[in-house]
């Protein structure tokens, strides 16, 4: 394994030592699932089921933490079946949707989700006007219940449209007390108060994790990376893995390991599972 941070090798060794108490948390899009033009037809990496199953046998818990609604990621990832297999090891798969607002576990099998805030419906009504004002009337609006996402991926000049939309949507979100989450050619607006960082802190307490690995690829993962660094500062062994994309460098600067997209994530997780297995055999 190649490390991109000064203490990466040391952190990895400590994480492997703590293996039985390890929480492995993963983003979905771009991490477990290759990025595609139409997010509605994304699918999990073909090896993910087997690799997550192998890893689950060695560590305390595995969590998927995504901006997508939990139901969507369960369906796209076949995570129900993955959860079944993981449950056979007496472990639990947790899926946190909408940045931790929604929760599903392989033990409870039900998506628990709060009510959408009225400010989201108000914003959705205002969107056609806002998109016209930003010169991107054709941007694709994805209603996600607790959030709404505006995608520019399918427009003629997606990057320019994104740059025009971001300030307009940021202002509209601020007026309504909502949070803005810019991603890859997508601006997501959602209720304030939850992000992947808070979600991660909660998972660590819940599972009394003795070490944490987080794998992400996008700006939405920055709060999780920062949460992991806070945990590291308290002495917890942690490892940050960036699923490499040419588009984002914010994560890369913080990562201990950089891998080449979902293929690289699979290889990393398989190696981690094997190292923990050998260390604790
Ligand atoms: Mg992602």
UniProtKB/TrEMBL annotation:
Describe which pathway this protein belongs to, using the record's wording: Glycan biosynthesis; trehalose biosynthesis
Q: Name what cofactor the protein needs.
A: Mg(2+)
Q: Does the keyword Hydrolase apply?
A: yes
Listed EC numbers: 3.1.3.12
Molecular function, one GO term: trehalose-phosphatase activity
In the UniProt record, does the keyword Transferase occur?
Answer: no
Q: Name one GO biological process term.
A: trehalose biosynthetic process
Pfam families attached here? Trehalose_PPase (PF02358)
Which NCBIfam families does this UniProt record tie to the protein? T6PP
The protein's job, in short, is: Removes the phosphate from trehalose 6-phosphate to produce free trehalose.
Q: Tell me what this protein is called.
A: Trehalose 6-phosphate phosphatase
